[in-house]
UniProtKB/TrEMBL annotation:
Originating species: Bos indicus (Zebu)
Signal peptide: none
Gene encoding the protein: SLCO2B1
TM helices/strands, residue ranges: 119-140, 147-168, 214-233, 254-282, 302-326, 401-423, 435-461, 473-493, 589-616, 637-660, 680-702
Record domain Kazal-like: where: 512-572
A Pfam family it matches: OATP
Name of the protein in its database record: Solute carrier organic anion transporter family member
Domain of life the protein comes from: Eukaryota
Family, similarity comment: Belongs to the organo anion transporter (TC 2.A.60) family.
The keyword DNA repair appears for this protein: no
InterPro entries: Kazal_dom, MFS_trans_sf, OATP
Taxon lineage: Eukaryota, Metazoa, Chordata, Craniata, Vertebrata
Amino acid sequence: MAPRIASEIFSCSIQTFHRRRAGFSSPEVMEWNAAGPVGEELQVPDKDAKAMVGTEDTPGSKASPNPQKLRPSVFHSIKFFVLCHSLLQLAQLMISGYLKSSISTVEKRFGLSSQTSGLLAAFNEVGNTALIVFVSYFGSRVHRPRLIGCGAILVTLAGILMTVPHFISEPYRYDRTSPDMPQDFEASLCLPSTKALASASSNSSCSSYTEARHLAVVGIMFTAQTLLGVGGVPIQPFGISYIDDFSHNSNSPLYLGILFAVTMMGPGMAYGLGSLMLRLYVDIDRMPEGGINLTSKDPRWVGAWWLGFLISAGAVALAAIPYFFFPKEMPKEKQELRFRRKGLAVSDPPVSKGEDSSSEQSPADSPEKKDNLAQIAPDLTVIQFIKVFPRVLLRTLRHPIFLLVVLSQVCMSSMAAGMATFLPKFLERQFSVTASYANLLIGCLTIPLAIVGIVVGGILVKRLRLGPVHCGTLCLLSALCCLVLSTPLFFMGCSSHQIAGISHQPGAQPGLELFPGCMESCSCPSDDFNPVCDSSSRVEYITPCHAGCRSRVVQEAPDKSQVFYTNCSCVAGGGPVPAGSCDSACGHLVLPFMILVSLGAALASVTHTPSFMLILRGVKKEDKTLAVGIQFMLMRVLAWMPSPVIHGSAIDTTCVYWAHSCGRQAVCRYYDHDLLRNRFIGLQFFFKTGSLACFALILAILRQQDKEERTKATIPNPGLQQQLLASEAKKEPEESRV
């Protein structure tokens, strides 16, 4: 997620920078034009005069009012706006990324496949992408702070809407239960046939109402995710442009840097919040009287996923309040006036004849500005905006460097989107860790190292002053190292343990045939799930009934209680066997695995800034703003929207045992671990290889262009040689006088 956030902030800052250079709807340019030629007195626009120089008495006016009333409001301070916007974007990205931290929990709670949960995560991008185009059209025509506040309120409502499925659903029952929770264990034991049939008939809850409620729950979550994306549309672009418009020129990069640094902590805080919330039981607000006999390591455990949305929505709501008090336009910082007077009096360079003649040319007559959508957009109607857009879009897409850089970033973003969505679930299944611990690892390792990678890439470009060829080389080397670090991940894992009646390891005895006929007298329900593990043979049974267990023992402890099943006819010695799945044999590899994943994320993030530089230095000057916007749109449409669905579909193909609810396929209970690892890491490897190939082509094209430029420079030009000789002859008398 970190590269995506960086690209959004970079895109918005580039757009505001070029919009300000273009001279439209910018208070700075309005003041510059009002100042007139060099040497004339600086004029301040009437609408800002009272705000800037309110303490001065005008001729014929009344006496100055009370100085306390002239004290500027805190809502007229751009520094306070930067603080508020940093907190708002932090909260907004925390609520946007929270679903990814609890994706496996939502799947278990509502019986969703990975493909469906991936589509649910992608719907956040659908709402955002559908409306983000209009941001470039409206620009500063609207009251930006109020629109940001309205967007934040919509995000708050969407976050609250995401919690509605929890409150309208029945309490979570982790096996085939009756309403009397203390008697739950009887449904999973080996019972006589008549008693089992009676229990099954009493627990049958499939009805049209149940299915309608399930569809309503899923529809509510998809609607909430769409509104979450729509509400986030005005927050980042309008906030950055507002800061850029009313801050001092030298302070604007500092403010945007502070905004960027605070915002980047949002995804990490989302995973941290998920780690805390998933330690709590899902029905913490309606716990049964007898309590529960589950631990967070039990595969049936469902954490309080909904509580994180409430906390995040509350944070967004609090951060949205100040935006309804900020003005539509605020005065520039006072330092701006002092700096501008000094610059106008001393620092302005003389205007050459060529520049003077070019400045007299009308912007409408300039051929380069006819297609400059970034400059003419504020003066166009919606119909004209739509007509001009395709022409500039096609011209930009014809640029080979731009197209290859966008494709490389689409590959990197696809890799990041899939990993951000399903890496917690992968760690849970592959290494038998809890959802809370998986989120903690991602929030403390992967996200911070990705941020470090972005910062390192920017520092290298700035300090070494890298040109296009060297930027391409840096991107290629980083992508290559990232690909090399991904190779060991294919081998860091272990095969699935044996599951009775489902999987059979080569050379091992099938679980149900250890004792033939051991469960003939049991009538085990087919849709029940209450796994137990025979640690001596490392065989897992779907329920105690499938292990032939006829009784249960609870060992009470001060911190937690442990459940054991005894009198198991399919287990050597009759048990006891503990409740829960068998632990993974390679759980000790989770930390080395995460270190390699985090280092790969850091190396992939190093390419972020250099690849942006390739776009800004490769396209025409008048198309830079639109090029960054097109790149941002393509990354959303081609990467962040389809990638979670692609990864979810690939994960579903590795399932070996599906749960069924009312005749429909629900959540996957067991995966083939080798297949899961190869396909999940294989998708990551595929996208990294695609990015590497794009960067290799970019470097080859840049070197060819550089070679052609050097060849042209070495060709002698007689006219140029005569000009050089004439200039040297003029310099000789000056040197002799010195």
